[in-house]
């Protein structure tokens, strides 16, 4: 087979690596990360792990925690509440496409391993 032929010969195996990993992939990844860092900096967001920028596009829920309590593996988000002027709690619907204002969001979470509520700090704004 072609696979065995390439693995048996060290010179030929270099061709397989070149075909599998395009030569300009690292340069493209670096330029994309650099562009992402610039966009984050423009938004006054400090990024301490630039290699995580590529993964950030898959994030659906973010919990900000000043007290470092949210380190459990089995933490589940129970519901999301909208907060306006720290006194009007309204449940945000599952589809957040129709939300127009930048009200603060607080997330009520429940530590499923110990069954006690955790107070989560507020995130400012809704991602657009």
TrEMBL record:
Keywords: ATP-binding, Magnesium, Metal-binding, Nucleotide-binding, Phosphoprotein, Translocase. It is found in: Membrane. It is a multi-pass membrane protein. Its main location: membrane. It comes from the Eukaryota. GO terms for molecular function: ATP binding; ATPase-coupled monoatomic cation transmembrane transporter activity; metal ion binding; P-type transmembrane transporter activity. SUPFAM superfamilies: Calcium ATPase, transmembrane domain M (SSF81665). InterPro entries: ATPase_P-typ_TM_dom_sf, P-type_TPase_V. One of its GO terms (cellular component) is membrane. PANTHER family: CATION-TRANSPORTING ATPASE, CATION-TRANSPORTING ATPASE-RELATED. This is Uncharacterized protein. It comes from Streblomastix strix.
